[in-house]
Specification:
By secondary structure, this protein is of the alpha+beta class. 49% of the residues lie in helices and 14% in strands. Helix 2 packs antiparallel against helix 3.
């Protein structure tokens, strides 16, 4: 038998487990509806759901293939009890769970990351049902470890509490942090005052230099020009 090509490219062999059922004698339409109802659910919850469907305690909601379907109890518009389809998918989930156990994965944290139903080649029936095509379906399942949302929220709350406890236990660090914050505030308040003082000093220096230049010019204008006396006679030899 040729190797089966899964339609899930992001498969990690170390942290995931998978299984496939080929040429199963079930309806493809019913398999699609069942797969849509189990996808992204916890493995244990999905198995319990399929067991209830087999016992006719819980119906599967049909959203796509709803031609001629009646209403069921609860908040369902239309639904059915696909017993044969649910039984085949349940066996595939069990085989995928066993594969995960062999890899050392925690089965309580496993969830259905990927599940898909594909139409297979249907052989022709023989005997008194000759001329009819049989229904065949491929089903593939991929499981992976995913933490519950409640556990994530609890872990985040615990992390926040531990950080607060550590801060309470170290009052010296709190004091040092407060001092550093006060020093930063003082620096921020002192910077504009220093800049203003520097500007004022620069303006004063400019004014003094201008006044000194004006005084020098006025002195040059008021002072008379002195001429050197010319020597009488020729130059001495």
């Amino acid at each position: 038998m040729a190797d089966y090509k899964y339609s899930f490219p992001a498969y990690n062999s170390e942290s995931m487990a998978r299984a496939v059922g080929r040429d199963l004698p079930i309806s493809t339409k019913q398999a699609i509806e069942v797969c849509n109802s189990i996808r992204k659910k916890n493995l244990l919850k999905a198995k319990a759901m399929l067991e209830n469907v087999i016992k006719k305690k819980q119906p599967i909601e049909f959203r796509r293939f709803t031609n001629g379907l009646g209403h069921r109890k609860g908040n369902l518009t239309s639904g059915r009890y696909p017993i044969k389809t649910s039984g085949n998918i349940l066996t595939i989930l069990n085989s995928a769970e066993v594969n995960g156990q062999q890899k050392g994965l925690n089965t309580s944290k496993l969830s259905i990351i990927h599940v898909a139903a594909k139409k297979a080649s249907g052989p022709m029936r023989f005997g008194r049902h000759r001329g009819r095509q049989a229904k065949r379906t491929h089903i593939e399942v991929v499981l992976g470890e995913v933490e519950d949302s409640k556990a994530r929220k609890g872990s985040t709350v615990q992390d926040k509490e531990t950080k607060a406890d550590k801060q309470k236990k170290n009052p010296e660090k709190e004091k040092a942090q407060e001092k550093a914050a006060e020093d930063k505030k003082e620096e921020v308040t002192q910077k504009p005052a220093k800049e203003e003082n520097q500007k004022k000093d620069g303006d004063k220096k400019d004014a003094q230099s201008r006044s000194s230049e004006k005084e020098d010019k006025s002195k040059e204008k008021t002072e008379p020009k002195t001429s050197k006396p010319e020597s009488k006679g020729g130059e001495k030899k």
